[in-house]
């Protein structure tokens, strides 16, 4: 059933959702958005459902989901049998990946903070602990 109640151009949709026109076209090519209806003039015509779907995609991207994960979430959003459970599992996986990345960033931050603290900010470049750490030949673990 077609739930479109408005007929907007791609430019109007892009402005309303806050994305670039090329982004909308890309999502169509990637199958995240269905091909829009065409007006007699050949211009794309979008409705409320496209706007809602674009907002879904944008919010999912802001939460760190990949396009492939978003495609899966869109599919699960209409699955009455396993949808909610599977969506929660995907969100838990994304959360775990974010937590892991945060832990890695904390290690990087701590290492950089040590280097900054140990650098006097003056003197010869070859005596700078930051520069020495960047050129040192050692394994990174």
UniProtKB/TrEMBL annotation:
GO molecular function: DNA binding; DNA-binding transcription factor activity
The entry's keywords: DNA-binding, Transcription, Transcription regulation
Matches recorded under Gene3D superfamilies: 1.10.1660.10
Highest taxon in the source lineage: Bacteria
Domain HTH merR-type: 7-76
Keyword check for Transcription regulation: yes
Keyword Cell cycle in annotation: no
Record's signal peptide: none
Family annotation (PANTHER family): HEAVY METAL-DEPENDENT TRANSCRIPTIONAL REGULATOR HI_0293-RELATED, REDOX-CYCLING DRUG-SENSING TRANSCRIPTIONAL ACTIVATOR SOXR
Identification of the protein by name: Heavy metal-responsive transcriptional regulator
Organism whose genome encodes this protein: Rhodanobacter glycinis
Taxonomic path: Bacteria, Pseudomonadati, Pseudomonadota, Gammaproteobacteria, Lysobacterales
């Amino acid at each position: 059933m077609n739930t479109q109640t408005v007929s907007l151009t791609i430019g109007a949709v892009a402005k309303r959702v806050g994305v670039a026109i090329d982004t909308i076209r890309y999502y169509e090519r990637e199958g995240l958005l269905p091909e829009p209806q065409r007006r007699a003039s050949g211009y794309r015509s979008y409705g409320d459902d496209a706007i809602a779907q674009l907002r879904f995609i944008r919010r999912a991207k802001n939460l760190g989901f990949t396009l492939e994960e978003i495609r899966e979430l869109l599919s699960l959003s209409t699955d009455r049998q396993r949808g909610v459970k599977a969506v929660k599992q995907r969100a838990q996986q994304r959360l775990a990946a974010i937590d892991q990345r945060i832990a890695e960033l904390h290690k990087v931050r701590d290492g950089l903070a040590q280097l900054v603290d140990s650098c006097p900010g003056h003197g010869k470049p070859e005596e700078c602990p930051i520069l020495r750490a960047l050129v040192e030949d050692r394994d990174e673990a």
